[in-house]
Write a structure and sequence with these properties.
Layout: E1 4-10, E2 18-23, E3 31-40, H1 43-50, H2 53-58, E4 63-64, E5 68-76, E6 88-91, E7 94-95, H3 101-104, E8 115-116, E9 128-132, E10 136-138, H4 145-149, H5 151-161, E11 170-174, H6 178-189, E12 194-199, H7 202-210, E13 215-218, H8 224-231, E14 237-242, H9 247-256, E15 257-265, H10 277-282, E16 287-290, H11 298-309, E17 318-323, H12 327-336, E18 341-345
Parallel strand pairs: 11-12, 11-14, 12-13, 14-15, 15-16, 17-18
Antiparallel strand pairs: 1-2, 1-4, 3-5, 3-9, 3-18, 5-6, 6-10, 7-8
Helix pairs in contact: 5-6, 5-11, 6-7, 8-9
Length: about 350
């Protein structure tokens, strides 16, 4: 295609980013060039923007970052057959090798050689992005671009909620960031009997309530373990969805878990966490699922189906729509905790 485009670049090893004019990516025979119509800010992007320890160990500036997006196919490589110019698409952002033992046995979502868009290769905070054709998910042209962009993080929530039985079960969602709030919506849509949303941020607790939480707990004001036990006649939560990654919250999650219950863990602690394995895991007969990414492409089918059916409505979660030039405001909103999903329009 050639030419130049505007992109948000992690320009140095330190806080911040800047808008730059860069070359439009060239594509290989198995790749597709997408004109980005909407992109959304993720917690990972905030880590990169603020340049924390994880970002400094993983990111090599200068680098276009961002990984959640939707857009329109602008160009296809010579070997591409699954999409054509003009198709509306989103993308699975985990690019797998298709050769390791995990990929060869149907577990490619835990590929040992996974590359991540906007982390290990140039991302989508730009007017155009290049992706392997096999990573594209074709969207209905009736699906708004902003909703289509958040299918990727919604897939994290779907994978977490549906990693075990949920229908008719009391479910605690710990951490009401955007993916935690999405997990509330998915748990409601898939039949959880009670959904207890737990956080320390009243703004996000209200978001969780608006998307289907039947009970909410501000754990900075009351003991969430005691409250969950009260709500469940002493049994505890049959399903605990740990979305926060906070060591205290993780411990509370295991203590509020019912005997024989399931903990699905998506949140990422920044350091090792000490647990009472004897009493809170072994004697409880607990099942623990570590959740990474999405099951390819089963989770995408579930995600698209929940949106298409109307059972999951994420419009209340999109709280801000900004131009790409307003990225600083977008990241400040994310940092403040007084936002849901922030959309950037290139």
């Amino acid at each position: 295609m050639g030419g130049t485009m505007k992109a948000l670049v992690k320009h140095h090893e330190g806080p911040g980013a800047e808008i730059r004019t860069v070359e439009i990516p060239s594509i290989k025979e198995n790749e597709v060039l997408i004109q980005v119509k909407a992109t959304t800010i993720c917690g990972t992007d905030l880590h990169i923007y603020e340049w924390d320890d994880w970002a400094s160990s993983r990111i090599r500036p200068p680098m276009i970052f961002g990984h959640e997006f939707s857009g329109v196919v602008a160009e296809v490589g010579s070997q591409v057959t699954n999409v054509q110019v003009g198709d509306h698409v989103s993308a699975e952002t985990h690019i797998v090798c298709n050769e390791c033992s995990q990929c060869m046995t149907g577990k490619n979502h835990v590929c040992r050689r996974t590359e991540i868009l906007g982390v290990d290769r140039p991302g989508c905070f730009a007017e155009y992005v290049a992706m392997p054709a096999e990573n594209l998910w074709k969207n209905s042209k009736e699906l708004p671009f902003d909703i289509a962009s958040i299918q990727e993080p919604l897939g994290n929530a779907v994978h977490t909620v549906l990693s075990g039985p949920i229908a008719g079960k009391t479910t605690a969602v710990i951490g009401c960031g955007p993916i935690g709030v999405m997990a509330v919506a998915v748990a409601k849509a898939t039949g959880a009997s009670r959904i207890i949303a737990i956080d320390i941020n009243d703004y996000r607790i209200e978001l969780a309530k608006s998307l289907g939480a039947t009970h909410t707990i501000n754990s900075s004001k009351e003991d969430p373990v005691q409250k969950v036990l009260e709500l469940t006649d002493g049994d505890g939560a049959e399903v605990v969805l740990e979305m926060s990654g906070h060591p205290v919250a993780i411990n509370q999650g295991f203590k509020m878990l019912a005997n024989g219950g399931r903990v699905s863990m998506l949140g990422l602690p920044t350091s090792p966490v000490e647990l009472d394995i004897t009493n809170d895991i072994v004697f409880k007969g607990a099942t623990i699922h570590g959740i990474t990414g999405r099951v390819l492409f089963e989770t995408w089918r579930q995600t698209a189906g929940l949106l298409q059916s109307g059972q999951v409505d994420l419009n209340p979660l999109i709280t801000h729509r900004l131009s790409l030039d307003e990225f600083e405001k977008g990241f400040e909103l994310m940092k403040s905790g007084k936002s849901g999903k922030v959309v950037l329009i290139p």
